[in-house]
Amino acid sequence: MKIKNICCIGAGYVGGPTMAVISLMCPEINVTVVDLDKEKINAWNDPDTSNIPVKESGLTEIIEKVRNKNLFFSTDIDNAILESEMIFIAVNTPTKTTGEGKGMAADLKYVISSAINIARVAKTDKIVVEKSTLPVRTAEKLKEVLLENARGNIKFDIISNPEFLAEGTAINDLFKSDRVLIGGEDSIRGKNAVDALVKIYEKWIPKKKIITTNIWSSELSKLASNAMLAQRISSVNSLSALCEATGADIDEVSKVIGLDKRIGPSFLKASVGFGGSCFQKDILNLVYLCRKYKLNDVADYWEQVIKINDYQKSRFSQKLLELANDKNITILGWAFKKDTNDSRESAAIYVAEILINNNMNIHVYDPMVTDERILLDLKLLFQHKKFSDAEIQKKLSMLKIHKNHKDALLSSNLIGIVTEWDEFINYNWEEIAKKNVLTVIDGRNILSERLDQVKNIKYFKL
Fold this sequence. Notes:
Blueprint: E1 5-9, H1 15-25, E2 30-34, H2 38-45, H3 59-66, E3 71-74, H4 77-83, E4 86-89, H5 109-121, E5 126-130, H6 138-149, E6 156-160, H7 170-175, E7 180-184, H8 188-201, E8 210-214, H9 215-246, H10 250-258, H11 279-292, H12 296-323, E9 328-332, H13 347-357, E10 361-365, H14 371-384, H15 389-396, E11 399-401, H16 405-409, E12 414-417, H17 422-425, H18 429-435, E13 438-442, H19 448-451, E14 457-461
Parallel strand pairs: 1-2, 1-4, 2-3, 4-5, 5-6, 7-8, 9-10, 9-12, 10-11, 12-13, 13-14
Helix pairs in contact: 1-3, 5-6, 9-11, 9-12, 11-12, 12-13, 13-14, 14-15
């Protein structure tokens, strides 16, 4: 099948950047990104590209080149489905909050509703691409839903093409992928569908980096990759606690470990804990799948990765509480990592919750996350914990968001570094310390070379 038109359902962190790069590299293909969220689509269409909803280095430049040429953003989902030969599903798959698998399994309601809509609208055969991170065997359910709701003798070919993007470097990851994974059915139609997507990626990805597998391997590989990365983070964080107890230096230990070529240095940086939309969700999903298939010992193993991550956030928070000499604490960083405005599952949310529950006033500064997002993150967490509206408002009143770092740093004498923003390293800490004697607990261990010898600053690694 020759692909002339692509529809992507979901205009978020995956759909937007991925489709922008495909549009740039495949000018002969019209790409339409659709979403029910009108505000999000309006932001993608804003003439001022600095207002697009995803903040990624290099993305605005691409949008300026291809938007309204062969890349379009729309809320007209039905028409985009109707006109396309290939449809990417890039919707959110949060952890279930109710029903079977509550708290662990992926909630596929947005994927299923997208499939029902595709089947309801389609008048010609479609290739449906799983772009969202999904549990293994989801393609089976997806095909069942498509066939049950199809009009007439329409055929659907399901292929899996999981994303391996790191937020903050997503555009570079798309251009220079370690690998592009495409899984399909072992049939003539399945292989033809896979080949159609391979031909798109071949426009800029070397063929040796395009890996084709069966569809189940592709679905599981994404969960497994994220689980392995999260495992490394939890492993080094568990060692950071031991280093603190014994007097060893976690940075020195990590460096030695990373020099072993069998291990390597990546993801061996001690921190306050991992966050983001993928790691915790995917590991919980993996735990659920293991328990579903009666692999309880395997499930226990992976669940421990989450427990260590929670332990690290708690350890950081308790350290702040132990060193507090009044009711004010400053948190630097709200995004789950630097160079992104994404705060989903950020460690900062849970650190703030613990501190507020201990009656501390929190002062927050982040260079990219909006005030509205910070307040919403905490509000949603408190709602999940079943606090009343009055209790939530009281808790949120203990949070003060600052527009610049100087105000935040002068608002308390106890600072917790939660995000590894480069600008934190470059502050004039010597000048700040002249105005305010500080205790700094570095949850990312990024300031040791700057603050170890600064007068009026007591510096602690995590």
